[in-house]
From TrEMBL:
Keyword annotations: Cell inner membrane, Cell membrane, Membrane, Transmembrane, Transmembrane helix, Transport
Pfam families: BPD_transp_1
Polar residues compositional bias, start-end: 10-22
GO biological process: transmembrane transport
Family matches, as SUPFAM superfamilies: MetI-like
Keyword Ion transport tagged: no
InterPro entries noted in UniProt: MetI-like, MetI-like_sf
Location in the cell: Cell inner membrane; Cell membrane
Protein name (database record): ABC transporter permease
Length: 290
């Protein structure tokens, strides 16, 4: 079977002549071009506005100034040491908080989802704590645990916990009870049912929450460092803010964005591996949507 040329006049005028794989390749190319165009529009427009005087670079910064600030950090470091050290400290706090929050959220979500009595007892208190502003919790943790890593890890873990907990809880409650009844008929114990039926069925809900939770772990670490720290990107941002260094603020934000994007790509790969048993979604099977 001969391959269809993506650039041939026939395929340009008649996209239906393309195979599903070729349509996916064409869409991916269009997405990449759209992203590149949007990036150039924003960055180019920002730089042009500062050059023409429409935006004051002292307050709004400029893409050129941000690149120069990042290069200066790479060469000479920040006021608190190497920029790589600040990145590693924030990354370490985020990953530790993410791990603690995910484990706690899954355990409590499955436990309260399986035992309605515990859900009724703990439910109001969980909702009260979840409603508290995170910056208030961050201040409390700094007072309790000091300016070291512990307060940032705990704050990140709390933010992650609630995201994972509610998804795990809802996932357990959404399990098909016919599957549970069939497992019980076959002689499975309650622990076996949870391990082999409930938890795998709720895995989709749990995995979906990890994307949001990963970003929240970074936010928790940054907010904790902003409130009080000895090292980290949050402290770098706070220092840049206090000295009216707009390029420094945007530079640190750019680093955080790069870390979050890299973590999201890694999480997507892990999700595909863990949920490989599921049938492909409409997007993955190249089925057009609405």
């Amino acid at each position: 079977m001969s391959k269809v040329d993506l650039d041939s006049p026939m395929t340009r005028s008649n996209p239906a002549a393309l195979t599903p794989q070729q349509r996916a390749q064409r869409r991916k190319l269009h997405v990449l071009l759209g992203r590149a165009g949007l990036f150039l529009l924003i960055v180019g427009g920002w730089q042009l506005a500062t050059v023409l005087g429409w935006l004051d670079p002292f307050f709004f910064g400029s893409p050129k100034g941000i690149v120069l600030r990042l290069w200066d950090w790479v060469q000479h470091g920040t006021a608190y040491g190497s920029i790589w050290l600040q990145i590693w400290v924030t990354l370490e706090e985020s990953l530790m908080g993410f791990a603690v929050g995910v484990i706690g959220g899954i355990l409590f979500g499955v436990l309260l989802g399986e035992i309605p009595y515990l859900a009724d007892v703990f439910g109001p208190y969980i909702k009260i704590v979840n409603a508290l502003p995170r910056i208030v919790l961050g201040s409390i943790f700094v007072m309790w645990l000091g300016l070291g890593m512990s307060s940032k890890v705990v704050l990140a873990a709390v933010l992650v916990f609630f995201v994972v907990f509610f998804n795990a809880f809802q996932g357990v409650r959404s399990v098909d009870r016919n599957l549970v009844a069939n497992a019980r008929i076959l002689g499975a114990s309650r622990f076996d049912v949870v391990l082999h039926v409930v938890f795998p069925s709720a895995m989709t809900w749990i995995i979906a929450s990890l994307h949001v939770a990963l970003g929240f772990s970074i936010i928790g670490a940054i907010v904790g460092e902003f409130l009080g720290a000895q090292k980290g990107l949050g402290l770098v941002i706070a220092t840049a803010q206090n000295t009216f260094d707009a390029n420094g603020v945007f530079g640190a934000m750019l680093i955080i964005g790069a870390i979050a994007l890299s973590a999201e790509v890694l999480m997507s790969l892990i999700e595909k591996r863990l949920l490989s048993w599921q049938p492909p979604s409409a997007a993955e099977s190249n089925t057009p949507g609405v």
